[in-house]
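Team,

Forwarding the record for the chain on the shared tracking sheet. I've put the sequence and predicted structure together so nobody has to dig through attachments.
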Amino acid sequence: MPWVNGVLLLLTQAALYFCVMTLLLGLRRRVGIGVFVCALGVMHFLETYLAAVFFIELPFGLISPGSTVLFSGKLAMILLLYVIEDTETVRQPIYGLLIGNMLMVGLVLLLRFHEPAAGLSELVPDLMLIDNMGVLMVWGTTLLFIDSLAIVLLYEALSRRWAGRVFLPMLLSLGAVLTFDQIAFFSGLHLVAGTPFPALFGGWVAKMGAALTFALMAAAYLQWVEHPSADHPEAGTARLLGRLTYRHRYEALLTASRVDALTGAWNRQQFDSLGPARLARAAALGRPLGLAIVDLDNFKQVNDTLGHQSGDEALKRTVAAMKASIRPGDEVFRYGGDEFVVLAQDLRPADAAAYAERLRLAVAAEGGALPVTLSVSIGIAVFPRDAGGFGELMRRADQRLYDAKGLGRNQAISG
């Protein structure tokens, strides 16, 4: 069947394209990223030309290798570069392709102001072809710029939803952007080159196949090729799960600066910043705000008798228990060594006692895996019933914590 040969041709081209481009990508630390970027951009004219004039007939329509393999592959390579490296690196081919292709079109247009010398060659310049290709180049380059930005943003959103997964975000990103591109670029092809409508649906089906093919190959590449090297630890940063975009790195560093490294609760600095802000917001909206100070009972004895490692485990389990028992939107902070603060938004004064008791019971249940029983003393106050300002709210909760300790500890006092 003739169409089988067509499918084999497309698959062979896709495999060859992917293998050569990923080889250059893998060598970027030795020969530089410029080799990969140049190879990525040098075929843009060819893919545009083939998309306009060269088609393979398959059962579901007319297919152009230029659009199906070269363009889809280029978009997949841009996405792969983003995944492996970062936004700073991937901007280079995106802006380079835009500027370079626009420059080429501009230079060709200037040739229209000069007649070529006659008789020097048997070949006659086809200026109509150059004009048509120039229009398609401008349109295709503009779409490529949009597509490249869109696929990065879409992959970013999908990878957050499916953290740690590669194939599915890549497949969906490629599929969505290539669908948009097929509709948009075909409109230009039809107007400029008279490309028949069967190429619209056929090209879309083929691009979906290309999205699946390149996503599978990219996922395999990330799984088995771009991995940490024992001899060169720095190369390991290229692995997908070990690399973050600059924005991810910034967010990770920012989060790390706000989080207590041992327990995972927000740290004191974050509490000093967020606490007054939360109260100001509650006051502006006319809503209550609960503040509970939680102190781990007899923590010094845990350290002295069982060691600091067990003490650290007790702190971590205390925070884990509180996080599991609080409501969505409530926040746990490590205020001091064995002292924590919980901010409970929209906590009604009538519910404060039950809320604090739930925290106390949750910690007690969590400590069952330790060789010592965990218990906490809690003082809780609610704005605006108990205080009109943040400092006063803290003092009121702290006084109730002191009362709970005076009653023998393992108590929750709300009023």
